[in-house]
Amino acid sequence: MAKNARLIYRVVYRWVQPHLAAFQTAQQPKMWLLAIGAGIAGGAVAILFRLSIGWLQFLWLGTTSERFLDRLSQLPWYFTMGGPIVGGILVGMIIFFRPRSRHGGVADVIEARAHDGKKLSLKEAIIGTSISAITLGFGGSAGREGPVVYFAASVSKALFRYFELPPSARRIMLGCGVAAAISASFNAPIAGVLFAHEVILGHFAMSAFVPVVIAAVIASTMSRAWFGDNPAFLVPDFQITSYWEIPAFALLGITCAVVAICFQTSLIGTDWVARHFRIKDYWRPVIGGFCVGLIALMFPQILGVGYEATDAALTNFWSLGTLLALIIAKTAATAITLASRMGGGIFSPALYLGAMTGGAFGVMAASVFPELASSEALYAIIGMGAVAASVLGAPISTTVMIFELTGGFAFSIALLFAVSISTGISQAVMGRSFFYWQLYTRGIMLEEGPHKHFVKYFRVRDFMTPFDKDGEEEPFDILSGKPWLKSNDTLENALRAFDATHKSRLPVMEGTGKRMRQVGWVTHVGALASFNKALVDQSREEHL
Fold first, then answer.
1. Within a 10 A sphere around the Cβ of 74, how many other Cβ atoms?
2. What is the largest CA-CA distance in the chain?
3. Among 78, 169, 303, 368, whose CB has the most other CB atoms within 10 angstroms?
4. Is 394 exposed, middle or buried (0-12, 13-18, 19+ CB in 10 A)?
């Protein structure tokens, strides 16, 4: 019996030991522990950011509640207009003293993930998040989720910088921070996990799943303990009236795609105009706040995050004319807010526009087919998911988020159908989500694949061989006129130089003019090996 037990032990050990060794090599235990810290940090960031918005709003309206429209209606008109203006002035003062400061968002975290977290600064995140808090606290038309994601990812990076982690683990830790932020902001842990995988990491590898879930669960628990366990939007129970409505849901998907495309185009267009409009940067938020205040005089529902107006659309509160007007007003107000260097995100505005679009579609559907059409609120919920998924480029996590936000699953078929159609049309027209459009304006084209990104990301200094003055290598004579590379040239430039010269080795130079000196050599084989290794590492990370 003892002999058989030893034999079984050896067999099991030989089978399990390689897997445990790989588990340790990937530093999974360390990441699980760090994920706890990322979850606590993300939850705390989301809670503090939401509270700070309420505190600033109290200075303006005397209430910290997100449902402030009744309170605003009791105040003189200049409170409605003055809030965004005061917010713009305060943001302008920050920009005056720190001209390079700007609010961060999801696109910045995606860029940081592509650059192994090197683009995130906790100090800049604090300033940028403060800009967003001021903007939203004084009625700026934007969302609170983007700034929270940016801040939580920055805190997560500050956490893992003290530990030796491979690049893949650092990227996973960024995903943990994002999942925690989304989970705590929306009280939607499943959607937070999926959003981190779908948008930030760009894959669903098992190695990232456990730490991301740990962070999301901890942050969501903290948020529920502080704000309660209720979903963000309370809607009545209802189901699809008839499956004859499926064509209507397809038409709703097309309609939502049009709204999403117009919204993204407005954001991109106003940002372009603002960047080419010659004016001091610190005046931009002041002008933007004034314009938003003017819009709010007629449509105060566009102020702030907009959850109160969104909730009203889900309960059939608005008329058809109001719903259509709010779509236009909210689009203009959000585009102006973000283009004028005030802070905030686009998640909540996308949900807002989707709810108004779906609600308006539902009113018209009920008037045409009163016996077949479901409640206008059902169309509003579906529209909310369809527009948001198209703008964010995250159909999976957005669909699940709608379920978690509303607490309903009876309309899953309709929601999936409309989301898929809307996302497909938006991708066909725009070519990329809004986040990737932001990266595209910075010269980062991740949607074209890792092979396109790596040749622009890696620099010659990353794979060159340092020049040894005392070695046998012959120094390069700059006067010879032969081609050379600089240490900050991209891998793409190096490969093109090798193709153009048909040489197997090129010198690396630094300096200018007579001060130029040789600092290393680069071989064609070494450049290709660096490129191939990056592609292999990327593939391994996505499949482990």
1. 9
2. 89
3. 303
4. buried
